[in-house]
Amino acid sequence: MAIVAVILFALTIMGGVYLLTYILAEKNTPKGVAIIHGSAGALGIISLLIASFFYHSLFYILIIFIAAAIGGGVLFYLDLCGKKIPKVLALGHGIIAIIGFIILAIVVFHK
Questions:
Q1: Whole-prediction pTM value?
Q2: How many whole angstroms separate alpha carbon 94 and alpha carbon 111?
Q3: Which parts of 1-111 fold into alpha helices (H)?
Q4: 5 close to 44: Cβ distance less than 8 angstroms
Q5: Could you give the CA distance from residue 28 to residue 64 in angstroms, rounded to a whole number?
Q6: d(CA 103, CA 36)
Q7: Angle at 76 between CA 75 and CA 81, to 5 degrees
Q8: Averaged over 84-110, what is the pLDDT?
Q9: Residue 111 — very low, low, confident or very high, per pLDDT cuts 50/70/90?
Q10: Contacts of 50 (CB under 8 A, 6+ apart)
């Protein structure tokens, strides 16, 4: 399940980079991509949660991704309300998620 989480988060990051280009250009984000991005992230968190029952060290990484997801939820709410998305919040959300992804990949693939 940990490898599934890595794959799901990798796909989520690709969608996130795509969405970030819209935010940095101050354009409206495509809502379908945002929904897929959030859904893939949620599935990654669920996969990581299941894996953390077997590998307890993954629990701490799960906390990082939950923090990123909270930021993502705030971003999605602001977007749906038609409010301007703060670039620093979008960048912070992405940086937290990428830090979690790097740590997860190191833990999962370290031999």
A1: 0.93
A2: 27
A3: 2-24, 31-54, 58-80, 87-109
A4: yes
A5: 27
A6: 23
A7: 100
A8: 97
A9: low
A10: 1
Tell me what pLDDT residue 19 has. Answer: 98
In total, the chain counts a number of residues equal to 111
Sign (positive or negative) of CA dihedral 99, 101, 103, 106: negative
- Domain ranges for the chain: 2-109
- Distance in angstroms (rounded) separating the CA atoms of residues 25 and 18: 11
Say how far apart CA 41 and CA 27 lie, in whole Å: 23
The Cα angle at residue 108 between residues 14 and 93, in degrees rounded to 5: 40
- For residue range 29-78, list pLDDT tens digits in order: 999 999 999 999 999 999 999 999 999 999 999 999 999 999 999 999 99
The residue with greater pLDDT, 110 or 43, is 43
Based on its alpha-carbon atoms, the radius of gyration of the chain, rounded to whole angstroms, reads 14
Q: Which two tokens stand for residue 89?
A: 């919040």
